[in-house]
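Re: the pair you flagged

First of the two:
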Amino acid sequence: PAVRAALAVAPQAPDSADTLVDVLRWHAERSPNRPHIFLRVDEENEHTITYGELWKQALSVANGLTATGIGPRDPVAIMLRTEAAFFPAFFGALLLGAIPVPIYPPFRADRIVDYARRQEGILSNAGARLLITFADVERLGVVLRSRVTSLTGVVTLGEIISKGDNNNPESTPPAVWLTGQDPALIQY
């Protein structure tokens, strides 16, 4: 309750922001400790993600994507649950100028074949170059990689962040070339 009470007074967002990256950067620079996302962990607990934390992780993801050969306008599939890992993957792709393609992870083992066929079609249609997923379904990602010609890799968010931190320890933002006219995501 105390944290939420402090949220009552928010800084005014900039009029000059054209993209989601502009807004995130603006908030991260002015109020890095301000909560941006509250994720319910269970009935009694939540995980809070601040603007500064999300910005820093997104920078590492953007640098990691660069280290794996992903560039502006490359579609990047994100097969993550609605959890803390999803948000830096999404914003990291945007920060680089890549196009995030969120896809649902599998949730029923008895329908995995149908799921794989559907995702194969989505990934092919989007021209996804990379799939970011979590360890539990990484093997499925490898199967999808063998069936989707545009897909050059399957990685976890931890692997991407590690490459980003190694690629650019100071987490210098890549040159942001996005405009308000560029795509923010491909949604199926």
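Second of the two:
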Amino acid sequence: LGEEVTPDVKGKLTVQNAMFRYPDLPKTADNINIDVDYFYDGRQMDNTTVDVNRFHIEFGGNPVDMTLNLRTPISDPFINARMIAKLDLESFSDLIPLEDTELKGKVDIDLDLMGNISLLEQEKYEDFKAQGKLLISGFKYNSPDLPKAFGIETANLEFSPQYMALNSFNATMGKSDFALEGKVSNYLPYALNDGIINGSLTLKSNTLDLNELMGTETTEESTEVEDTAATEIFVVPTNINFAFASEINKIY
């Protein structure tokens, strides 16, 4: 063994028909079945493999299924992944402790990825499988950590090898409303291989009350807020290339 050679590691994780439940709550997370194989090659790390053959769990009757196969993670990562989930978030209050927190809404996830990252870098999108959707409706989250409740009437995010398309996103927070749409491209090389992510987003809003969103009081007659927060430098990552446009009718 030396600086470039480490021990090989081979393992397997199996869980069959497991469950858990918090005390004093009526619902359980059950039918938990997990089958994972992994191999780490300490001499040639590119031979490392990860296989999530099965990952299934039901959160109070809300099923989540995932699979994953990873190959050649160093030279040219190959990924084969699938995730399907249908969640009724309101039922989670009967499953996990959510003290002083309101959570509800429907979430539908269906994602399917397969291919080598090099195909995306070469813009051979037709050879890389990447499709899916994320749908949200009737979402509401309210907790003491937020100045106002946050809600999403509808959200529709569509995936393809070339881009993620935000077809609709309609949300509210207190008096403020947000409607977003746009596209983000090159997201897979960005997420998996430090590529540059590109995007264009458009925001439309009838009213934005920034004072309310920051937890300060505001009125129609008085809209100035004293800036008492300490100034800090925020460094924008260099591998993000975004165009953003907004159309706001009234802002406080």
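The CA atoms of residues 88 and 106 lie 5 Å apart.

-B.
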